[in-house]
Amino acid sequence: MSAYEALDSGSGVAEFLKYPKETVAASLPLRRDDGRITMLKAWRCRYSDLLGPTKGGIRFHQAVNADEVQTLAFWMTMKCALAGLPFGGGKGGVQVDTSQLSRTEKERLARLYVSQFENVIGPRRDIPAPDVATGAAEMAWMMDEYSRLQGRLMPATFTGKPIALGGLVGRTEATGEGAFMIFEYFARQLNLTKDDTLAVQGFGNAARFFALAATDAGYRITAISDSSGMISHEEGLDIKAICNVKDKGGSVADTDQKNVQKAVGQDILKHPATVFVPAALGGVVNAGNAKNIPCKVIFEIANGPVKPEADAILESQDIHVIPDILANAGGVIASYIEWTGNLRGEQHDRDQVSYILRDHLIGAAKRTSEMVSDAKGDIRKAVYMAAIKRLSQSYSVLYEI
Ligand SMILES: NC(=O)c1ccc[n+]([C@@H]2O[C@H](COP(=O)([O-])OP(=O)(O)OC[C@H]3O[C@@H](n4cnc5c(N)ncnc54)[C@H](O)[C@@H]3O)[C@@H](O)[C@H]2O)c1
Questions:
Q1: According to a count of CB atoms within 10 Å of the terminal CB, is the N or C end of the chain lower?
Q2: Percent of the chain scored above 90 by pLDDT?
Q3: Its family (predicted)?
């Protein structure tokens, strides 16, 4: 079930959401450290502001293009609607290989992006955040540049900033910890128990905090992979030990836990765990491998890990999919908390962040559950139906006669 198919079952809002509200393209003349100019393609898309200012990350990657930016902005529209946030969806990107840039070139690029898109972004218009190859440092440079151009401090224009510049305590943990809140909710619905095991693909920011929360709660993670390979252990992997290894710059395969089995990374798709948790890349489950995945549940922490053509195959095997726009919504909810704090000049502590995070996530999970029977048990269809329902309410007030 793709988002666009789900839209076909919506109201007049389906026609309204067919195309983005605004996509601005630009060419950025980046001055290199040696004085040369490199021209880079860049975009910012505000897909829909039906529910509020548009919200979404800025990606620096060589594969970025207009279609990708618009698709990601569409997903953000759905994610924010589902999570009950007063945000629309947006996204931005620059087609660039950041491994070829020095730190000073990255800073110039971040500032250049803001000067180019100054009229698109703003705290009540479009609020960017980090994405692939952008992080707290880029957000700090961007916020500083925007404030300079506007002649006043504008922290609420960007989220994912360093804490010293108005960032949020708990932002780093929010996606993974939020994902575990959603996992627990569906574990009850799907009758999973602590005897059920998990296999996690990827061990970056989102996967780490999910894995820590899951093992703290008593679940066994029997396999983990990262870009260098996979490790497994029937009795459960020692997640804290793996975190220590990763913090020292190692990969999951460097863990010294006894009796750990090692394999190539793609073997994680064949590992016999009850729950497969893709938390790295998009498109890893496709029509070619979907029928051989030995799990009962796929819990999507990565964006778009299951290709649309694989959904029907998974459904025919009774594999439940908990979709990305629900499972990984903790990140944008944390951004919302940061934004409200910046607008009011207030700071939130860790307990307040956890409380607001849980409130929005469980609200989104309940809205999904209410749609599951209309969606004939298809949870992906249910999340889109719940998101579209909220978007339709604003649409009808504004546009339906
Ligand atoms: N971090 C967030 O706040 C957030 C929010 C929403 C969605 N997501 C999504 O979650 C996913 C992970 O994001 P992240 O922030 O944890 O990224 P990250 O860059 O911190 O980590 C990515 C991880 O994936 C691993 N990886 C790369 N190629 C791999 C491969 N071929 N096989 C197995 N592992 C591989 C890397 O080794 C690394 O451990 C992405 O799809 C991202 O879009 C993240």
A1: C
A2: 95
A3: Belongs to the Glu/Leu/Phe/Val dehydrogenases family.
